[in-house]
Design a protein that fits this description.
Number of strands: 4
Largest sheet: 2 strands, antiparallel
Oligomer: single chain
Distance between the termini: 49 Å
Structural class: mainly alpha
Strand order of the largest sheet: 1-2
Shape: flat
Strand content: under 5%
Radius of gyration: 43 Å
Amino acid sequence: MSLNLSSVSQKRTLESILAGRVTKRPKVEDTKELQEAAIQLLYRHQNISGLLSEVVIQRPSADTCVEKAEQKQTVSEFLPSALTGSLLLPVLKRQADKLGVSVVALSVRTVLKRLRMTCNDDDDYEAKEGIGVKRVLLTSCQRVQLCSLLLSARELLSLGAFCPKLFWQEYTKHQTQYKLEVAHHLYAQDILSIKYILESDAEARVWMVAGLKALCSRTSPQAQQEEVQVEEERDIQQAVLSSVVGVLVGSGFEENKGPAGPSRRTSVTCCSILDHMLCWLLDSLDMLQGQPCGEAALENWVQLLDASLCGTSASPEALRRFFMHSLTQTLTYKPRLKVSDAIAMQNEWSFAKTSRLLTVLFRKLAIVFSVEDLLIQLQQVLETHEVNWQNVLSFLSTLLVFNPNAQPCLREMLGKLLASAFESYDLENMITAFLLARQGALEGPSFFPSYSEWFKLSFGGHSSYHGSSKKSLVFLLKFLSDLVPFDPPQYLKVHLLHPPYTAVKHRSLMQEYVSLAKTRLADLKVSVEDMSMYEDVSGATGEPGKHQCQALQDVERALSLFRTTGRISATVMEASIFRRPYFLNRFLPALLTPRVLPLKADLKMTFIDALKKTEKIPAGQYSSYVEACQRQRQQNKKGTSCIEKYDGDDSDPLDGLNVQLKAFRRLVRVGEDGEFSAQLARISHTLGVIFPDRASGPDEQRVIKLHVDEPLTCKLHVKVVDSILRTFCQCLLDASSPPNRQSQWAAQYVDVLLGHTELVSILMHRLWDLFHNKMMPIVVFRPHPLTEALSNALLCNTQDNMLFCVRTSVAAVCYGICRSNPLPLKELQDYIPTGLVKKLLYLVPRLLPEARRAPLSAPSPETLREPPPVDGGQEWDPRCWGGTAGTCVATWRNSALQLWRNPTFGQLAQLPQYRLSLSEWLAAELRVQRNEDFLSDQDRQEYQRWACMECYLSGPVEQGGCGGDMRSLCTLILNAIMDQQEGSPQDLLSNRSLGRSGPRLQDTGTCLPDILSRLQELVYEMQLSGHRGREEVRQLLFELLSVRCSSSDSQGIGRELRLQQTLHAWNRVLLALPAELLVVAVRNADQRWTLNFHSCIEHVNQYQRRLCSPAAVLPYHVTSHLLRGMLSASARCASSSTEVNRAWSEVPLRCPLLLVSTVHWWSRLSPMLTSVWQRLRDEDPLPELLKTIPDCLHWALVSQQAALSPLPEAPALLLAASLHLARGGQGGLQGKKGQAFRETLETLVQTKDKHCTQVLVFLLFLCVTDTLATVLYPEESGRLGSREMCTDLLTVLVDSQDWHLIFKIQPADQGPYQAVTMATLDEYTRLRSFAFYSVLLEQSPELLKRAVLCPGFLHTAVLCYAYLFKLFLDGHTPNLLAEPHINQMEPSQILDQARQFLLRTISQTRPTALSSSQYSQLESLCAELDPEVAAALSTHLGPAGLSQEMDFLL
């Protein structure tokens, strides 16, 4: 029977009853004799209609319907179809002879009579909201009877005693109401095709359309129905719709090259039906107008339009033709709107305002096409049809929103439309281009450029489409003028603010359009002067406060552009000239809002100054702004007291400190070293007054607390710190001319500061703030370790941070070189921090491509005597470090290049402690944020290739390079990637010099994809070297993982978590590399290529097995990668299928986890593996052993629903995994499906086949694993049904010894089930004893009695108890669920009950149950753990009663 009868396939039929009686009465052996007896009996009861239905003629009542259906199913379950046909045929023949008609005619009449009795009842109504409504679907009883009737008809058809065509002719003669479900069942039972129904029935179109509408509109009645019944009817409804629509699509849109005939007429009919349904859908959408009521029916039809229709009924090409036809019909449906209406109403047709069902329809129809195909079709429709502009533009919005590739394709299409329009002066192409561009702009800049931007790009330059001739200009202006009466004001404003390019001699033509557009805006009471400088196509005009809000938005946008470019935007400059009233009356007042001006010019002040320099701000307006800001400052000062006085003195301490600092600077400038100490003492005294927390003694230490997230609250302290830093920098500049005039002033200055703890804390806070606000910091703190701390705070992960860091580092290193110029290299190191040098070695080549062409090298003695000229003769400037304080880009670039080419810097960079290793370079590069990088994507790739291939790959090993060894380079890159993923402490420590302090950044947005691309390039080059290169890459990958996993020094759960973290990072790298690297093809003794799958197997068993939690299966991507690698590597072999079969044959025994995972993910793996295999081996089918997987899954699925079919020839674990997956997919073991599955288990056991027993034992293992998963991982609540499954399996396996073996701890004791240890986590294996008693103690007393009597049970029970006791002592028992299972016990309860059960079992066991060796093992094991159990063993099973022969049997 078909799949539609799955709901009733669990009950026995007459066939099963007869078959059962045959097996119970072995004396009746002659089948023919039995058949003849049955025929004679039937001759006496010749009600053929009742015989066909296999039920009584009288229609069963609603109460007994299910019971009768069960009886009918029971009757036909086991009787062979040949026997049923042989019973029916003689009766039909005899009756036909009596009536003088043919057997076929009689069978048709009989079936038809029964069909009408079944389907055409007077009470064929259902209650819906208190109203009787005609049924659309059959009732459950009707469906059962109809399917039984059609099954009998099909058997008669196979015997030549039934004619489907005659049946349909007779059926349509007197039928007034058709049920679409009847046609569906005729089609599903292979009795009559829907295509024939359409060909033979002239009225089929009418009733089929009505049936489709009724089915779509059908909802569940309000009468009391069980949820199962509602779900069943919903499934039937979906099945009927899908099958009918699939046939309609297949018959209507298959390519038919023949002449007109029945097939052609059928095709037209199918298309007509589908078009009628589409019109019904579109009409209903228009009537609903966004109302949710009534959408359910339309939703049902829309959801049918899916690629899943492509199956046996419709080919992919037919489906594509259907979707394209439907899309065309939708775009051209009822074109009642004119172009002028579309122009005026377009703002209401954006994606957000379009009906949800219409957008879903567009997505369904477009899913199988590329964007290019869709836009080509759209253009063809626009050129050849009258269109529904609302649908066309809504479709375009949907395409832009849901397909990221739509924008460039649409822009290309618009370009072609405009080019064609101006070439032939075609107004249709012009209006199409404008409507499509405006529609795209409605969806926002993330989907399409704004309309103003598109208009400027298309018509704003002299090379635009209209710029070639006056005729083109006139054509454009005439077109724009014709749009004026219909254009919304926002588009008119765009045309006025960004007018098309017009030559000077044609300005009068443009002026005519300007006058016309302004007149139209005046009629609409919209002023162009009040329009925002930046586009606003919302269409809103005239709202209160709108103009002021627009001005503020313009200010923010202008400041944002100024921050990005450093220049006043062209839009602001144009507005200051062409829109001067708006600029003066709106924009400038919004910009010049009075405020308290900051001490250091911020972005807004800089922008205002730039406008003032260009004379865009009137002098009087600027003076008023400054005066208002000063008044604002005075008002703020009145309410606050920011100056702190000290000890009775009326003078300001800040003023006194500033006077002292100026005096100190004068002393430094003139070089009077003797006065330093005295002046510094005065400064220290003043600081002590301002910061009265000075340490009481020289030995007293205080902790400096730095809260960088909290702003400094005391303004006096901020001003004091700023004065101290300003004085230090000024003194530094003064003392550096010449640079070797330095004295100890800086060290003494810093020592004075260190004497004030609060001051140091505030100073550090201020420095941190200056660093993060990209201001020039102090570059020289040599007397104190603060230097390295500040260098570590310099980040290199964004453009701003890079520029700030390179300027700071250049200044500090240049100063150090100048300061220590006469000193030898060894002492030079005391003045130059290593961290800053490494930052320069990283940043200068990255930011300046010129530096890459001048690599650093150790200078020769001649070079050191005379520095070479730089940049076209420019020599080394000893004070170049001072140039980095400016904001000019050229200044710091020149300073950086001078430093890079300086011989002393090159000599310094060759020292080991200053050298930038490849690991450090990779660590810094991996922390760069790609979206905020200084380099573009292309420049970054070029730089990384230079660094990897030219700088480090070819560099000498002693200088941090790889010496040309690509394997070494790949190893370092892999380690860097994994360090970045793991965030190891070693990574943080080794890269502190590059600013990698603090927590690890997430890899989101970093340069990890770029470094992975470099790795892929290196791996590809290694692969080009042939088999040896691939083998090297494979060994490299596995060796790297082995080293990293073995290097973890943590213990216990910390080590396990660390290993899992390493494996996750390794898998990410692995999945980025070609899959064929994992599996290698090697030559055997016969010089033929064979697959070597051993390393992959070992890798899965040793490492990937740790990541199979909680599902006890490998992740899908890992499984897919391994299998794809196996198939890809087999391409080198002469017989790929043979080699894949040979490699896969090892998996069930050596890598069971991979087998179970493959079964688990097969529904997703199958399309991918088929695609890979067909690409490698043309159209060859998958290798045999892989093809057994879907066979086993199909067998398992069938076994869930009906009688057990023959077992496929497959490993026991594969069959068990298939059953386990099928059982999980059915949602548990409740109801009829559960009963059928239990019967399957019993049938497998009754076969007495060892293979079947192994299947059940492996299935028990998988269910026990699920049980543990529910305990260890509470989120796996969907596996709670595994306990009931374990009970069912134990019920059928309890008398077998095999199920004990999966609970053995040692693999050597597990016999043929050693795979269970390799198919799960070590944690699950350790808890196997817990699982043994957790499951066993929930069983019934009768089942436990049977288990105790099973040979070998006692030995297993005692061993599991001993290991459970050890788990309890070691504290390794699992934590239970927050809401535990109803029968789940605490670990202590399980241990206590296990002990009681074991003592009872020992007392009830015969002395011969254990061999002498087993007894000795158990007694020694229990003596230390539980002496009472050991005593019980000795008492009941002591040496006197042991069987010596048992040792030879075990």
